[in-house]
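Box 4.2: Ligand-aware structure prediction
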Amino acid sequence: MIPFNKPYLTGKEMHYMYQAVYSGKISGNGLFTRKCQDFFEQRYGFKKALLTTSCTDALEMCAILADIKPGDEVIVPSYTFVSTALAFVRQGAKVVFVDSRKDHPGIDEDIIEEYVTHKTKAIVPVHYAGVACDMDKIMNIAAKYNLLVIEDAAQAIESYYKDRPLGSIGHMAAFSFHETKNINAGEGGLLAINDERFIKRSEIIWEKGTNRAEFFRGEVNKYGWCDTGSSFLPSEIIAAYLWAQLENLGDIQQKRTKIWQQYYIGLKDWAKAHEVRLPTTPDYAVQNGHMFYLVCNSVKQREQIIQALKEKDILAVFHYLSLHKSKYYNDIHGGRELPNSDNYSDKLVRLPLFYELSQQDVENIMDVIKNI
Ligand SMILES: *Cc1c(COP(=O)(O)O)cnc(C)c1O
């Protein structure tokens, strides 16, 4: 059987977790947490990196830092994971859904401005499949209307926009280390801060509304309750696991992008002949081999592909259901149509892509598809 995803173990995870457990410092913000955070700050140039227990948590921290309040509006794509919207809805915001691009599931940058009102506080682009949104366009709109940009970079580690790492362009960004992502910690995430104004408060929100991080650096001689917040930091055991993954980032990325290329080259002619679209990577983007998907020409064609693979014990899966039509938000959204988002909900299918997928597996998967 070929699963859709299989979390990869580098081999060092248990070793570092053992070290963390026996170090006597198992709670968060210890040695492994700092190693991971330093890695992100140095490699991607984030002004501040904070490990969180999930990307959802990191997005919630962004919503707090952006001071989102009831009555505010936040612009998000509809074709995304629930957390992109939920983090802001929990702070009382109304999310305003914007459609996907025709050529790509990412937010249509060219129509964002139509949805900016005097209530808009932030834009949350999602780098779907690790493919960059057109960040210059988005940052220009944000500058014009004085909005914050919060990148949902959950899938976007080691992806670039015009040579700039994703997550380093918006005012803040959130990454995920869920087991389905390129780098995993089971559950885990990262908040990246690029605008210095938010650094000090981010540490306080991270540590239950206290200035404990400052205290541990010896900058104050006692710590206490300063602000809102929660327990957003993971334990050292999770950071230790994550560190083993980060040490092997290069190897993992090389493997995944190679599999992605094999699919792309192998399916190109078939896709053209069958009116199936392969992933689009705009010139300004370098993607990270997070996902390989097909956009079928009909719901029926997608069903045939999923079914044919299933018969050979290969698991291919579709992805998001448009959030503007979700049970939770449908009424608030109103009836405004987002046809491109719905199109991806109906016709996009993801093929297996994980470190241990062999070249032969990929050949077999492609043969099944081509023989339908
Ligand atoms: C995976 C994902 C999330 C959620 O990440 P968690 O770490 O599971 O909270 C949010 N947004 C997008 C786009 C994702 O792919």
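In the box above, the bound molecule is pyridoxal-5'-phosphate. The chain has two domains: 13-247, 249-370.
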